[in-house]
Amino acid sequence: MDITTPPTRNHALLDWVASMAKLCGPDHIHWVTGTDAEHGELTAEALKQGVIKPLSKEKRPGCYIAYSSPNDVARVEHLTFICTPTKEEAGPTNNWMAPDEAYKKLGALFEGSMKGRTMYVVPYVMGPLGSPFSKIGIELTDSVYVVLNMRIMTRMGRPALDMLGDHGEFNHGLHSMLDVNPDRRFICHFPQDNTIWSVGSNYGGNVLLGKKCLALRIGSYLGKTEGWMAEHMLILGVESPEGQVTYVAAAFPSACGKTNFAMLIPPKRFNGWRVWTVGDDIAWMRVGPDGRLWAINPEAGYFGVAPGTSFYSNATAMNTIRKDTLFTNVALTEDGDVWWEGMGTPPEHLTDWQGRPWVKGSPEKAAHPNSRFTAPAANNANLSPFVENPSGVPISAIIFGGRRATTVPLVLQSFNWAHGVYLGATLGSETTAAAVGKVGVVRRDPMAMLPFCGYDMGEYFAHWLAMQKKLVHPPKIFMVNWFRQDENGKFLWPGYGENMRVLKWVLDRALGHVGAQETVLGWVPRGTDLDLAGVDISEEDFSKVMRIDTKEWLVEIDAQQELFERLARTMPKEMVLQRELLRARLERLDQD
Ligand code: SAT
Ligand code: MN
Hints:
This protein is an alpha/beta fold. It has three domains: 2-31 and 76-226, Phosphoenolpyruvate Carboxykinase, domain 1 (3-Layer(aba) Sandwich); 230-297 and 387-591, Phosphoenolpyruvate Carboxykinase, domain 3; 302-379, Phosphoenolpyruvate Carboxykinase, domain 2. The protein contains 17 helices and 32 strands. Strands 1, 2, 5, 6, 7, 8, 9, 10, 11 and 12 form a ten-stranded mixed β-sheet that branches. Strands 13, 14, 15, 16, 17, 18, 26, 27 and 30 form a nine-stranded mixed β-sheet that branches. Strand 11 (186-190) and strand 12 (195-199) form a beta hairpin. Helix 2 packs antiparallel against helix 5 (144-153). The protein is globular and about 80 Å long. 53% of the residues are buried. Bound molecules: sulfoacetic acid and manganese (II) ion. The site of manganese (II) ion (MN) has 3 residues, from loops.
């Protein structure tokens, strides 16, 4: 075995790497340092292996394209396991495997899996270097594609080992692609051991272990035990023309526009306003000494959905991915650029995401619906100057949003924290291409965390409720739905930059600048509170997008039954009462 010199004296780390190397049997061990010179070597290696291809140096400097196996294009929730000592700890919404069984089963798959390959030792930090919020992970992987992505998505290499020191604690991540076979694919989390084992995949959410695996599944477990919160939320700051910046965190399920919202460009009407991106996917939040909720983005890059990203929907992202970006499963143009559905008019000829020729007008999609860009946050022209702030940014409002064609109005504010937790807990959303499975069916996705909560979901709601006690100034909680449609399936709300109108009302409410109207569901804007000047929406359509239909809501409440039954063992009583109160209010209205 040939080994680059381990740049650490952390014995726990050295011993663990040695024992995993014994298990996996790689030909080489490469301790990743994160330097530019090393990046050049890794890129050359990935090019040599045919894992990536260069894009046009003029059009996309420093950019590469990668294709995954067609059987490996999204997260696999049915192959994702929480391996707690008891099944109850994982809860009814997670797949569970006993830790011993999981170590045995995956251990057999890892045995000799890296023969003829290199094991990369990838030290990384989630969160700003040196921040008390931050966590250190080490990912052992035989995929150079993973290393190239981790370099963009995390603070990778030497600085992570420096922060770890000789005695620091770290997350133990082990990944092997094996032969990328769905029959030998498992993503297992061992919260008690701070360990993640992932085999048989090379797709983002399954293998970039710092992201969903550490930052959310293990993170949520650590949050519960250590008294903080790991959430599937973007973080943004809105700067008023007077220079006041207010921070908002928002949870939406995967592929529902978190990246677009985090990079929103205010419309002309909002001259002088500016939105700063702190994060587009994950928030780690703690109560600060001032009793406010403070948040950091643990990531250092964006793993964004490509289709639908355009200069209209997200100009900030389009500019962010101009250079030093890794594209996965997008289409390739003849002049070495990228293309995907929703970017604009396609060229006459493309190479599709499976390497096949594609001609304009073809019914097949040229890019995979879950194709992605991996881009450094540093490329974002609207990156918040406070992303590296070790204590994060103070959150004034939390927004929950799903993708709903009917029922859920454009915006409302919860009556209080517990009611807001209920709104988040019962969030429903139509499924998307971000996970393998049927697309477009409504499922309950509490706080957009259904696939990412590392322990029992009822306990998770209890943790949310308990956080209120520690918060002197809790953020106000809101619910939004950008995706409501009319009877003909047309979107009622223009979305994208126009979401600034809704965001402005959220801020006004959070800062106590404006009144509101009470409804059965929560507080909504009064007649002229929401600034609609210059928005392309008729009065009729606006009333449709804000409509609260009693009958639809009685059906919605019934649709929550399954979640309440499934979680009955641990569902906090307060959640049950919130639902009953809402039902009573709706029934009273229905009788009137
Ligand atoms: O595929 S990822 O989990 O990395 C992104 C997402 O689904 O939110
Ligand atoms: Mn996500």
